[in-house]
Write a structure and sequence with these properties.
By secondary structure, this protein is mainly alpha-helical. It is built from 5 helices and 3 strands. Helix 2 links the parallel strand 2 and strand 3.
């Protein structure tokens, strides 16, 4: 498994960056499952928006990824409660929930 960091720092194109990342890793041999790590922190005046996080999650689902991860939970929960809520409340499809529970 690989967990590439897809941080759209000072940008607003989480979906485009995730799509490019996944396409690049899928072209590698041997193939390994991909679980991307998205941005959930503040840095130098930048922070992700809830809509960017939702774009990231929806794109992950449309790319048939089994899961995502976010950095940094402690910072997100303390300083970005709306982003925390967007991640927490995201309705993963039944197929993806099953894949996640089987892999644990």
């Amino acid at each position: 498994m690989i967990m590439p960091q897809v941080y759209w720092l000072h940008a607003h194109n989480a979906d485009e960056q995730l799509t490019r990342c996944v396409n690049e890793f899928r072209a590698m041999v041997p193939f390994r499952p991909i679980i991307p790590v998205g941005a959930a922190y503040k840095e130098f005046g930048w922070q992700p928006t809830s809509s960017e996080v939702l774009d990231f999650l929806q794109t992950a689902q449309s790319l048939n990824l089994s899961a995502t991860n976010f950095y940094s939970w402690d910072s997100c929960r303390a300083y970005l409660p709306e982003v925390w809520k967007a991640i927490h409340d995201y309705p993963w499809s039944k197929h993806l929930r099953l894949a996640i529970s089987v892999s644990n």
